[in-house]
């Protein structure tokens, strides 16, 4: 009795697993065609200076409009792309499209500050990455100083020598680097000093859980404060990701955090809306305008 049940449940799990692998294979097939089928697009999330209250740049975030499944999150298809070796084509599309968009903002006279592009460690460490970035900049006549590459700490663990080599080459083009999701990985503090790192992007996990209960000074607050202090000591600016509440904004600013990004200021938006956002910040500052009172 029991044995039969266990076998049944084992087979059930096995089926579920092969089902998932099968579905991922189908999805990967679709993803392979996505760049050519016009199914990929970028949204841009503004980054702001917390004290000066200006727009300092934006982050390009990839979206995939699947013909049957609707818009799929990069949290789903980026890991798949990395697994199936598709990240190079997908990442290439993101890079060229980000440079094209930045060029277009320049031509429209929009002071966007710079564009941040997420780079998988597989891309950075792949042969020909430097040439690819150089070509994307040249094609769109974009100064390297307007491009920031966001890498994660995993890249430093995987092949620090190759990473350092290509980072220095790219730095010579004026390109800046930031460490994404800082605090969740394993980067040695030594490398932070040795590598050309322009800023630390404090992982939103820490920021999100900061000040959840009013007045609390818990572990997250301690981690954030320590990261900010580290940035100060190494002379690397820190940008806090995932700022959602005014309390978090206030607390971070008080702790000396330079820059921020999060739903409090703006969600990722279409490129065409970014110019309006920059204009609004110039007129009203970085915080959303209070909604007009309904009672009057
Ligand atoms: P990330 O680079 O850490 O990007 C920040 C993520 O947090 C984005 O999610 C953004 O929409 C979200 N976010 C921003 N502010 C807030 C906030 O206040 N609250 C909350 N809850 N979330 C906020 P998204 O766009 O879904 O991207 C998820 C991840 O997918 C990114 O994390 C990045 O690791 C990866 N990704 C996105 N685009 C690309 C790409 O072009 N290439 C690569 N390799 N990875 C990408
Ligand atoms: Mg990022
Ligand atoms: Mg991040
Ligand atoms: Mg991330």
UniProtKB/TrEMBL annotation:
Top-level taxon: Bacteria
EAL domain: residues covered: 24-282
The protein's name: Diguanylate cyclase
Species the sequence originates in: Oceanospirillum linum
Full-sequence portion shown in this chain: 555 to 850 of 855
């Amino acid at each position: 009795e029991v044995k039969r049940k266990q076998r049944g449940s084992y087979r059930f799990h096995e089926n579920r697993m092969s089902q998932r692998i099968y579905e991922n294979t189908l999805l990967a097939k679709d993803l392979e065609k996505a760049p050519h089928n016009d199914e990929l697009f970028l949204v841009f999330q503004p980054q702001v200076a917390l004290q000066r209250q200006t727009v300092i740049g934006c982050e390009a975030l990839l979206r995939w409009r699947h013909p049957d499944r609707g818009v799929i999150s990069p949290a789903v298809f980026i890991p798949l792309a990395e697994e199936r070796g598709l990240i190079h084509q997908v990442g290439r599309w993101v890079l060229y499209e980000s440079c094209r968009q930045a060029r277009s903002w320049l031509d429209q006279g929009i002071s966007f500050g710079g564009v941040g592009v997420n780079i998988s460690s597989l891309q950075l460490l792949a042969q020909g990455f430097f040439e690819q970035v150089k070509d994307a900049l040249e094609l769109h006549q974009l100064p390297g100083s307007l491009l920031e590459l966001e890498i994660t700490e995993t890249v430093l663990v995987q092949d620090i020598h190759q990473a350092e080599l290509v980072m220095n080459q790219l730095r010579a083009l004026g390109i800046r680097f930031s460490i994404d999701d800082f605090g969740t990985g394993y980067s040695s503090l030594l490398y932070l000093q040795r590598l050309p790192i322009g800023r630390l992007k404090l992982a939103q996990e820490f920021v999100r859980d900061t000040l959840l209960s009013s007045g609390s000074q818990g572990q997250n607050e301690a981690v954030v404060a320590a990261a900010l202090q580290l940035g100060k000591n190494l002379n690397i600016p820190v940008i806090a990701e995932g700022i959602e509440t005014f309390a978090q904004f206030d607390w971070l600013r008080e702790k000396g955090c330079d820059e921020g990004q999060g739903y409090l200021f703006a969600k990722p938006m279409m490129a065409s809306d970014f110019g309006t956002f920059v204009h609004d910040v110039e007129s009203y500052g970085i915080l959303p305008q209070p909604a007009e009172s309904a009672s009057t």
